[in-house]
Amino acid sequence: MHRRSVVDGILPSLSAAILIAGIFWIPSTIHSQTPLTVVGLALTSITGAVMIVHHSFPTASTVIAAIATVVGTGLGVCEDPMLAAAWCLYPLAIAHAARTRTLVLMFVCFLAALAAVVSVPGSGSSVIGQRLVLSVAALSVAWLLGTAVGKQITSAREAERARVQLEVARDVHDEVGHALAVISAEAGVTRGLADADERELRDTLADIERHARAALEEVQGLVRGLRSTHPSHLGEGASGRTAGSADLRSLVATTRAAGVDVVAAIEMSEKVDGVVRNVVFRIIQESLSNVVRHASGATCTVDVQEQDSAVVVRVRDHGPGTCTTGDSGFGLRGMRERARLIGGGVTWGNHPEGGFMVEARVPTGGS
Q: Three-state secondary structure along the chain?
């Protein structure tokens, strides 16, 4: 695969080198005197070689191509208006796009426009003058195109970096936040039991250890994803595994152990897309984490059903509710972002009959 990509990268440069040599170098070289023919062929070979390797050595290739073109033009074995040098300049402009100032771009645009006007046939300029302005135009256009493409590449990389950072932030918040909330709740419940025996204390410590280890494994999975070459799998869970019914039952059991009376009715078939199941799991996880934090000891209902090619999730607690229903919580915003990525939506707020309710609707097949 790597060899094929290298070949695919060389072919356009090889084609361009053959085209420029055939049009601007070979005819002038053939019609020149014998000593100059040898020099012309040598310069042609050097120019073609640097055009082929220009991606690996853009600066050196541009300088060598420009010098060879100037020397060849002076000897009369070349009529190239710096197209070979412009070809080598293009990747150099891409690499330096982020550091190119607006004033430099304006100056290059001015040179390109001036060259286009001066090189118009019949303007009274000499052949040498026309070739000079054409060379300026070719180099200017190559730099402008390379700078534009380079800025697009930089923007795309920054957007991808921001996306990955947001995915990591959501995963850390959901998994580690839930584990810490459960650990804190279990510790608080155990501390409130004045007559707790040694067995109960050991069981609670075992649960705390299990939740802490699970959170640590999740963080390690995130780190491995960030260190890998393709961290795009982070959006499907740091563990790379699809959440199933067993994970939801374990999540409910963990929340019950933290002191929340959870009544669950989960009806979601395994035919539902894996990404959708992961999003449903995260929504329920964050909702139950909020119940543990803000309505510990209250009754909570979890209802998951498939309706009209969509999975509907409703998590309602019977606690005190909240005084704010906006987008103040990072976890709530994270739920909404996850749902939107697959074409769904999430709403939340105080329930008319008391407590707080989160409702989500996501398509069963993803997007």
A: CHHHHHHHHHHHHHHHHHHHHHHHHHHHHHCCCHHHHHHHHHHHHHHHHHHHCCCCCHHHHHHHHHHHHHHHHHHCCCCCCCHHHHHHHHHHHHHCHHHCCHHHHHHHHHHHHHHHHHCCCCCCCCHHHHHHHHHHHHHHHHHHHHHHHHHHHHHHHHHHHHHHHHHHHHHHHHHHHHHHHHHHHHHHHHHCCCCCCHHHHHHHHHHHHHHHHHHHHHHHHHHHHHHCCCHHHHHHCCCCCCCCHHHHHHHHHHHHHCCCEEEEEECCCCCCCHHHHHHHHHHHHHHHHHHHHHCCCCEEEEEEEECCCEEEEEEEECCCCCCCCCCCCHHHHHHHHHHHHCCCEEEEEECCCCCEEEEEEEECCCC
The pLDDT profile of the chain, 367 residues, written as one tens digit per residue, is: 455 555 566 888 888 889 988 888 888 888 777 788 889 899 999 999 999 988 888 889 999 999 999 899 888 888 888 899 999 999 988 888 877 665 555 655 655 565 555 554 544 445 666 777 788 878 888 888 888 898 888 888 888 777 777 777 777 777 667 677 777 666 666 666 666 677 767 776 777 777 677 666 666 666 666 665 444 444 444 445 677 778 888 888 888 877 788 899 888 887 888 888 888 988 998 888 888 888 777 889 999 998 888 999 999 998 887 755 444 567 788 888 888 888 999 999 888 888 899 999 999 875 4
Question: What is the pTM for the complete model shown?
Answer: 0.56
